[in-house]
Amino acid sequence: MTTPALTPRRADWLVALAAITMLAGALLMGLIFFYAPTEATMGVVQKIFYIHVPSAIAGYLGFILCCAASVWYLLRGDVRADVVARAAAEVGVLFCLGVLLTGPIWARKAWGTWWTGEPRLLLTLVLLLIFVAYILVRQFGGRSDLTRKICAVLAILGVADIPLIRYSVERWRGSHPQVITGEGAGITPEMQLVLTTSFITFALLFVTLLALRVRIGLAEEQADAAWRAVETADLRAEDLLDRSHP
Amino acid sequence: MIRTLPAFLLALALLPYSIAHAQGASAPAAGGDSPAAAPDDTPAVDPDPPAAQQDSTDDGAYTRAALERDGFVAASEVREGDLVPGGPLLFAAYLVFFTLLLLYVLMLVRRQRAVATDLQGLQRRIEEVEDRLLVREESGG
C-alpha cells in the first residue's frame, strides 16, 4: 500500500501574477528614470518619491488587512484568517521598512539631515516596531491558540496608530511634504502618470507577495495538522491492535 | 521564484546607468505647486548647475572648508555641486529597496523549501506507520 506523493501544488496563476508584476516593475523603472522629469528644487533625489509613497500605502494596507483578518480570527476562530493576518503583517513590515529606509535618504538631501523628531516619522517608526514585535511573537511563540489570540489583539491595537499618523499630519503639520492631499496631487502630469503606474505596480507586488506568503502559511498549517493526525492515528491503531490481539 | 534572480540582478546592474541617465536629463521641470519642496530654510540646490558656474580649477576644497567651519556659511562660499550629492543617494535608496525585496523573496523561498522537506518527512512517516501496522496485523499482533 502506497500513499500518493506529498508535494506542494504548482500555482500557475501565481507564476503568471509574478511575471506580470516583474514586467510592470521593469516598465516602472523605465518611466522613473527615462520619462519622469527631474524636479526643480531637489533634483534627481526626488525620484525616491515614486517608491517611497506607494511603499507607505502598501505598508498601511498590509497592517489594515492584518487587523481585519485578526478580527475575523477572533470572531470565528478561522485559522486561515490567522494565516492571512500573519502574511499581511510580514508584507506590511517589508514595505514600512522600505518607507523608513528610503525616507531618510531623501531627507539627507532635502532637509540636510537623516532624521527629525517630527510626529509623523516617530509614529510611523512606532507602527513598524509594533508589527515587528507581532512577527517576533509569531515566530518564537509557537502555534498555540493563545499566541494567535495575543497577536490578533496586538495587530488590532497596532493599527490604531495609523489614524494617529493621519491626525499628526493635520494637527502638527511638520516639515514632511504633503504632496497628495484631498485636493489631488500637486505634481506635473508626467509625474502623475509615473506615480499612478507606481501605485499599480506596488499593488501587484503587494498581492503577489501576500499570495505567496499565504500559500506557504496554509501549507505549513496543513502539514502541521497532518503530522498531528498521523501520530494520533498511529496511537489509536496500536491501541486497537493491542485490544484485538492481546 | 529563484529563477527570477538573474533578472533581478540584471535590473540592479542597470540601476546606476538609469540614474546616470536621469542625472544627465534635460532642464528640470517644475514640480507643480512644488509641494515636495525642501522645508525649513534649507537652500534649494540645482543638481546640474550650468557649466559656466562651475570652477574647473577648484577641486571643492574651499567648499569643504566653509562647511566644516563653525557658524554661518555664505551661499557664495559653497559650490552647488559640492553639496549633498543626489545621484548616490538615489542609487542608495533604490538599492536598499530592491535588497529588502530580494531578502524577503529569498526568505519565502527558504520557507517553501522547508515546507517541501516537511511534507517529504510526513510522507515517509505515513508509509512507516502503514507498513508497521500491516506487518503487525499480518503477524496477528
Structure notes:
The complex is a heterodimer of chains A (246) and B (141). Chain A is mainly α and 246 residues long. Chain A has one domain (43-177, 189-244). Helices cover 77% and strands 2% of the residues of chain A. Chain A has helices spanning 12-35, 49-76, 79-110, 119-140, 145-159, 161-172, 189-244; strands spanning 180-181, 184-185. A two-stranded antiparallel sheet of chain A has the order 1-2. In chain A, strand 1 and strand 2 (184-185) form a beta hairpin. In chain A, helix 2 runs parallel beside helix 7 and helix 4 (119-140) runs antiparallel to helix 5. The longest helix of chain A has 56 residues, at 189-244. The model of chain A has no long low-confidence stretch (mean pLDDT 89). Residues 26-59 of chain B have low confidence and may be disordered. Chain B has a domain at 2-21 and 84-138. Chain B is rod-shaped, with a radius of gyration of 30 Å. Chain B has helices at residues 5-23, 61-68, 86-138. Chain B is mainly alpha-helical and 141 residues long. Chains A and B meet through helix 1, helix 2, helix 3 and helix 7 of A and helix 1 and helix 3 of B.
- Report the uncertain regions of chain A: none
Beta-strand residue fraction of chain B: under 5%
- Strand coverage percent of chain A: under 5%
Q: What is the CA-CA span between the terminal residues of chain A?
A: 25 Å
Give the oligomeric state of the chains in this entry, treating copies of one chain as homo and distinct chains as hetero. Answer: heterodimer
